[in-house]
Each structure stands twice: as structure tokens, then as C-alpha cells.
Input
Amino acid sequence: RPIIFVIGGSLIMTFKQKTYHQFQQLLADKISTLHQQLNELKESTANETKSTAGDKYETARAMLQIEQDNIRHQLQEALEQQTRFSSVDRKETNQEVVQGCLVRTNKGWLLLSVALGKTIIEGIPVIALSPQSPLGKELMGRKPGDKISINGFDYIIEEIQ
Output
């Protein structure tokens, strides 16, 4: 049975829906922060005034440009993650592990979607990992009760949502 949360007295979300929502929000926040950092760097570059020491000015502008390029790269990666995450199938019931599943193991909850790391949902840690990761590959196609071993750790699938 899925865990269900009541929010604001009316909206009901399953644990899986809440998990997806939380990771979507984390991605949106990351993208917003990167946009803000990029805008601040553009402002800094525009406000950079040429000092009497020309080399110092050029070095400062070059450093700002390098930082802008790094943030643009991070932003592009985050936007690609957001696109892939949004396209993941979220159906609620699965008999075996496929991309989009929320899997409870003896080691905790795993969301097979995009590698986004760990977050806490209602006090429960959940790790979003890619189906192409070593653990993700081993989980794909498995059923509740199946056991897999990865890097010396045994995982037992207890539930699939």
C-alpha cells in the first residue's frame, strides 16, 4: 500500500508523488540559482571599469568569463536533467523495477529516474539514481523479494511503487 500524505487538509499525495514533486522542486531551485549567479556575473563584467593597470583589468574580465562559462555548463546540465526527469513514466503500480519506480529496499528508498542525489521527504531519505548506474542496472527488472549484491552490500527489494 502506498504511503499517502494529506496536505492543507484537501490535497492527497502518495509518497511517490511527493518524492517526484520534491525532486522537481530541487531541480527548479538549482536552475533558478544558476540563472541568478549568471546574471550577477554578467552585471559584474559590465560594471568592471578599466583601471590604470590594464593587465589587472584584463585578468579580472577573463576570470569572470571563465566563471560564466562554468555556470553556463552547470545550467545546461541542470536543464537536461530536468527534461529527462520530467519525461520519466510515473505510473503508480509496477510488478517489477523499471525506470520511474520508487523502490524500498532494506537499505532505504531509491527513485530510478535521474542521478539527483539524496533528499529527505517527511523524514525519510530517498536517493534518486540513474537506471544506468551500477545499482540501477542491477535493480532493473527485479521484483519484491529479490536480492542483489553491489560493492559488498546486499539489497533486498521490499516494495515497488
